[in-house]
Amino acid sequence: MAKPAQGAKYRGSIHDFPGFDPNQDAEALYTAMKGFGSDKEAILDIITSRSNRQRQEVCQSYKSLYGKDLMADLKSEISGDLARLILGLMMPPAHYDAKQLKKAMEGAGTDEKALIEILATRTNAEIQAINEAYKEDYHKSLEDAISSDTSGHFKRILISLATGNREEGGENLDQAREDAQVAAEILEIADTPSGDKTSLETRFMTILCTRSYPHLRRVFQEFIKMTNYDVEHTIKKEMSGDVRDTFVAIVQSVKNKPLFFADKLYKSMKGAGTDEKTLTRIMVSRSEIDLLNIRREFIEKYDKSLHQAIEGDTSGDFLKALLALCGGED
C-alpha cells in the first residue's frame, strides 16, 4: 500500500523529453563535436533535457550512425567539472553510483563521506542494482571492495547496508518499543565499556540497517517518549567518527531524505571553496528521483533557493548545466 504514495511524493526535475528522437539527438551531438572546438551549449542542451533512459538510446544511435562511442567522444571534447557532470548524466544510475563508490575507495585515502551518502540513502532495489553494476564494471564485489578499504565497526555497518536487505513492511509497535529500548541502552552506555557493549552495538546496527523506514520512524518516536531525547541528537553526542556519521546519515535519511540531500548541497557550497564532487554527485543522482523535493527543503531551511545558491557559487558551462538540472527558480 505504501508504494504508490512514495512514488507520488517524490519528484525529480528531469523527465522524458516529449517528441524524443534518438537519431536526431545523435546527429546534433555529432555536429556539435565536429571540427575545431565544440559547441558546448548544444551538448549541454541535449544532455540535460533528456532522461537517463533516453540518453542511453542516444548512445546506441550514435554508435549505429557513426560507429563511434559517444562517451569517448564527449570525454575528448569536455574536461574538468563540466565533464564530470555530463559524463555522470550519461551513465546508467547504478553504474554511476558504482563508479562513485569505486572512486571513494581508490588511492591512498578513503572518501568516507561519499560512501556514507550513497550507501545510507539508496533503496534495496537501487543497492542491488549497484552491486550488479560494480561487479560488471570492476570484476570485484562491492562487499570485497568495502572490506579491503574500511575496518572495524564502520566496515560492518557499510557491508550491512551494501546487502540491500532492509525490511520493506510497515511498523510493528511492540518491536519498535524494544528497538527504542536497545537504542536507549547503547546511547546511554556508549562511553562506559561494559561487557556486552559489542553485542548491543551490533543490535543497534541491525536496527538501523535492516528495519523498514516506516518502522524506524516509529522507533524514533518511541525513543523520544522513553528518553525525552531525539535519537539523532543523542547519536551525535554519544558516538564519534565514521560510525557516528553513518548512523546520523541513516537517521536523517529515514526522517526526511530530501532534507538530508538539501543539507549536503548547502554544505558543498558554503564558505570559501566549492565541493564540486559532492555537488555534482547529488545533482546527477537525484535529478530523476527527488530533486524537486530537495529544492523545496532547501529554500525552506536556508531562505534562498537552490538555484540562487548554485548561481552564487559556480560559473560558466558548469553553472549552466547545474541550473538546467535544477530545473528552475523557486
Automatic annotation (TrEMBL):
<dbReference type="InterPro" id="IPR018252">
    <property type="entry name" value="Annexin_repeat_CS"/>
</dbReference>
<protein>
    <recommendedName>
        <fullName>Annexin</fullName>
    </recommendedName>
</protein>
<dbReference type="InterPro" id="IPR037104">
    <property type="entry name" value="Annexin_sf"/>
</dbReference>
<keyword id="KW-0111">Calcium/phospholipid-binding</keyword>
<keyword id="KW-0677">Repeat</keyword>
<dbReference type="GO" id="GO:0042470">
    <property type="term" value="C:melanosome"/>
</dbReference>
<keyword id="KW-0106">Calcium</keyword>
<dbReference type="GO" id="GO:0097190">
    <property type="term" value="P:apoptotic signaling pathway"/>
</dbReference>
<dbReference type="GO" id="GO:0005886">
    <property type="term" value="C:plasma membrane"/>
</dbReference>
<dbReference type="Pfam" id="PF00191">
    <property type="entry name" value="Annexin"/>
</dbReference>
<dbReference type="InterPro" id="IPR018502">
    <property type="entry name" value="Annexin_repeat"/>
</dbReference>
<dbReference type="GO" id="GO:0005544">
    <property type="term" value="F:calcium-dependent phospholipid binding"/>
</dbReference>
<keyword id="KW-0963">Cytoplasm</keyword>
<keyword id="KW-0041">Annexin</keyword>
<dbReference type="GO" id="GO:0006816">
    <property type="term" value="P:calcium ion transport"/>
</dbReference>
<dbReference type="InterPro" id="IPR002393">
    <property type="entry name" value="ANX6"/>
</dbReference>
<dbReference type="GO" id="GO:0012506">
    <property type="term" value="C:vesicle membrane"/>
</dbReference>
<dbReference type="GO" id="GO:0005739">
    <property type="term" value="C:mitochondrion"/>
</dbReference>
<dbReference type="GO" id="GO:0001786">
    <property type="term" value="F:phosphatidylserine binding"/>
</dbReference>
<comment type="function">
    <text>May associate with CD21. May regulate the release of Ca(2+) from intracellular stores.</text>
</comment>
<dbReference type="GO" id="GO:0005634">
    <property type="term" value="C:nucleus"/>
</dbReference>
<comment type="similarity">
    <text>Belongs to the annexin family.</text>
</comment>
<dbReference type="GO" id="GO:0051560">
    <property type="term" value="P:mitochondrial calcium ion homeostasis"/>
</dbReference>
<dbReference type="InterPro" id="IPR001464">
    <property type="entry name" value="Annexin"/>
</dbReference>
<dbReference type="GO" id="GO:0051283">
    <property type="term" value="P:negative regulation of sequestering of calcium ion"/>
</dbReference>
<dbReference type="GO" id="GO:0005509">
    <property type="term" value="F:calcium ion binding"/>
</dbReference>
